[in-house]
Every structure is written in structure tokens, then in C-alpha cells.
Amino acid sequence: MSAMPSKVSIREVGPRDGLQNEDPVPTGAKVRLLDALSRTGVGRIEAVSFVHPKAIPQMADADEVWKAARKDPAVRYSALVPNSRGAQRALDAGFSEIEVVVSASDTHNRRNLNRSTVESLDDIAALIDLLHTAGARAEVIVATSFGCPYEGDVEPDRVAAIVDRVVADGADRVAFGDTTGMATPPRVVAVVSRVRENHPDLPLLLHFHNTRGTALANVYAALQLGVTEFDASVGGLGGCPYAPGASGNVATEEVVHMLHDMGIETGVDLDTLIDVARLAQEIVGRDLPSGVLRAGPRLPSGR
Amino acid sequence: MSAMPSKVSIREVGPRDGLQNEDPVPTGAKVRLLDALSRTGVGRIEAVSFVHPKAIPQMADADEVWKAARKDPAVRYSALVPNSRGAQRALDAGFSEIEVVVSASDTHNRRNLNRSTVESLDDIAALIDLLHTAGARAEVIVATSFGCPYEGDVEPDRVAAIVDRVVADGADRVAFGDTTGMATPPRVVAVVSRVRENHPDLPLLLHFHNTRGTALANVYAALQLGVTEFDASVGGLGGCPYAPGASGNVATEEVVHMLHDMGIETGVDLDTLIDVARLAQEIVGRDLPSGVLRAGPRLPSGR
Question: Domains in chain B, start-ordered, CATH in brackets?
Fold first, then answer.
């Protein structure tokens, strides 16, 4: 076990992963959310995705959103892309941190991307070249890293093999997605440890869903391994964990609240973040599944 | 850090702590819930409390409920009492495991029990004598062990001092309540470690609320310390964590689901338990805040 980190970097994914899994909201509301998040002190924001508007109408206005957003120089913004066409749009829009997804389980990859994991990995190799040529950084997100809703358990060896491949192809960073909330602490330990066997110094980021209540337990287990990067979604935007088939992103304010009480710095002002969670709730027009939003921090000033 | 335990004992508190914090339900529904829980394989159930019906109308029919319930010889049932009058009722009803509460923070104790913590401790000393004379066992639950909604942080030394006192007075067991969901993993480590300094072999049970999403992280931290006893409430019965002022008991099926995936035995059949959570939901007539109830286990057969 490594020492508990003193600082953690949160990537706020509400504007992209969150809103992509909600009913479409107006462009202006997306810009307001993005701008409000830029003022929370969070270090990184996944701003938009450049996908086909027929596939994901929620992101059809990605260019307009990004053009209108106030870009804070203190924040690192990233965009998700499904292919080289999306990557080119992201580059043209000015992004220099770009994410692409592949699933550890073949069935999930086929359902999500309509091709095999191996085919996706070949595409990603070309995409990494495209991004590097343009001077951008490429992050590969390995979905279903802790379990697949179609195939069940996913062996850490399969996750590690994907990491080996994308690192060999030049990926700058790797993230691990608990796509449907199947991670539990020992699975986090198993995947992180297995990946580090071959790549002890690779920056890795964990993305948990709270579908079955385990998200903060998983964060805690990862912190004990010295992991310092986590995705989270303001208010838990992106599908209520209590609705069937919902994604259930862990709420940023729940992650930040626990980290601060543990004495771990995030740079985020929790009170400001809770205000933004309230805004997110207004934007989607329903109660969001965040306990810290509902109950407030454990002490009146949560920092 | 101790080795992770291979078995954990869950005490199901839905029939008492759960229903006490919901709108009153009919006696027959309480009996149905209790009997259904007795068939899940759970080892312990907090069945009822013997309190003044004006103070807590939800438990006014405790005698009838307990009389009608099928008592499974494989299950240890307990009752909560506020004072010696309630203790006598519990003894008369046939209970031999009886719980009594005191708050670690004086303000909470005064608001909850209308007397100081020290006055409560004196009452408890007499109550332990009464129970022991009758051949029953006494558990003292230390509420607000991880924080108080009125006083804020609670020093582990205060919790430890209460434990010292009640153990000296003969308490057979001690439990620690995270009454309003203020616990986080390092606070769990601090309280458990501090209490064990003076009482290394005392059986201790932890009772977490998921008000701010930390319940399973707290369970995980406690498991790493070798703690093997936890309270949990079927479906998360006992106040939705998303409603203001709600208690937010951690859902039994979320605890069991995580433990089983960690290879830790509980004796509980998760599928049966989820059926009972569904029954609990019907009984209270609203959606309960349990992710595992909503989404099902991570694999179709959760054991």
C-alpha cells in the first residue's frame, strides 16, 4: 500500500458524460453549467464530445457550446471523440486533450461502437497518431474495466492487455471506467495492481459509477494504492442510479466532501460546487442523486 | 491493519430503526416484514423498540408485533429500550438482547433524551444491572460517535470515555452510531483504534448512515481493521437520504452485495433479501434509496 495522497485531481465530467445521459438541454444551459464549473476550482473538466448528432443528439451543439464557454486558463478542458472525424472536430475547436473509449469486453464494445475491441484498438492507434501529429494528447478510456453487463466479470488480464497495446501505440494517459457500477474495492485493487505490473509510472484515472453504492468505497481503496485522479459528475448528473439502466456517475460533491474530510486537497470549493449541483438540478429539472447536495456537508462550511 | 475478515455478522435494523423513522404502518405489515427478514439468512434482527407510544407512535404496537412474529431459532433478535420501564417490557416480552442509546455529544443527548450524557450514563448503569439480574445481555449504542449535527466533530476521546464507563458498568457489547451520516473512513479508523486501546477484545458493532454517500467506504475501512459486525436496514428503510433531516440507514442489500463480492460470508441470501427490500418498499409506499434494490446485483445471481 502506498501512502495516502495529499492531493487529488478531479476531472468534472458533468457537462459531457453527465448531460449526454440526460434528456437534451438548451445550448445556453450547457454553457452556464460549464462556466459555473470553471469557477469551482476544479482542475479539469470534460467539456463536450464530438459525436454524430444522430447517435447522441445531446451533444449536437458541441461546437457552439465550446465556442460560447468562458475558457479558464487554470482549467484543463478535454473532449471525448468516437473516431478520427470527431478528433478532427475537437482539434479544430482547439482542444489539446482528447479522450477515446474502448471496452475491455468485446460484447460491450460491439454494442457501444459496433465493432470488436481489436478493431477499436486498431482505430485508436491511428487516432493517437492523428492527435500527436496535431500536438494534442490522447487519453484512452477502458470501459467495463471492472465488469460488463453482458459478459459479467472482466479479468484484470484483459484490461492490462488493452493498456499494453494502447501504451505501445502511444497513448499518453489511460482511464478505467466502471461503466455500469460493477466495481468493488478488491476489483479496483486487482485492476490497478495488474496494470501497474507493466506500467508502474503510467498516469491512471478512475471513473466510478455509484449504481450499487460502492463508488466512494472504490475511491477509498484506490487512494490507498496512491491513485490521484478521479472522474466525477456534479450532482451525480448522468442518470439517476435508481432508474433502470441508468449510468449513475458518482457525484463530484460526494467525492470532494469525503476527500476534504480526509485532509486531501482537491482545489475545489465545496460550497461553490454544491451551488453548481443545484444549478445542474434546475437544468435537468429533476432531483439529482447526490447526498451532499441534499443534506449539505457534514459541517456547515465544507471548504 | 488486521487481515480482512472472512465472515461478517449483519444486524438487520429495518423493522425497528427503519420503521421508526417512516410514517406508521399497520401491525400486520410489520410482522410480515419481520418474518420475511427471518427467512433471509441474516443472523440478527433488531425487531422492535419499547418506547412510550406518544414519543414514537410507530412502535406503539411493539408487543403485538413481537407476539405475532415467527421467532426463528437461528436468528438473534434484539429490542431497543429508552429506560428501565422499556427494559422491563422487553424482558417481559421475552427478549434477552437489549440495546440502550447514549449520545457522545451532550447537545444531541439532551435533544434526544432530555438529559445530559452523564445523566444517561447513570441511568444506563442501573439498567445494565436490571438486565443482568434478569439474565439478559446489554448493548450500549453510542450515538453521534463520528460527529454531531449540533456540536460538529466529536473527539474519539469522548467516545472512548463513554465506552470506558459503560464497560466498567458491565455493558456486554458496544455499538457506534453514525447518527446523521457524518462518518468518513479516517474517522472510523480513529474511533475504532481509540476504543481498542483500552478494550482490545470488546465486541464492537458499527452503524452507518449513507446520508453523504460514505457508508460503504466506512464499512470497507472498518473491515480493514477487522471489524465484523455491522447494522444495516433492508432497502435503506428509515428515511430517504435525499430528504431533509432524513436518517438514511445504509441498505442491507448494498452492504451484503459488496461483502459477497469481496468473498466475505454473511449467511444472507442476497436474492431473497432483495425480495424483502421490495416488500419493504410496498409497505412504506415509496421508492427506497437502495441501489442494489433498483439495479440488481452486479451479476444476475448475487448469492
Answer: 9-295 (3.20.20.70)
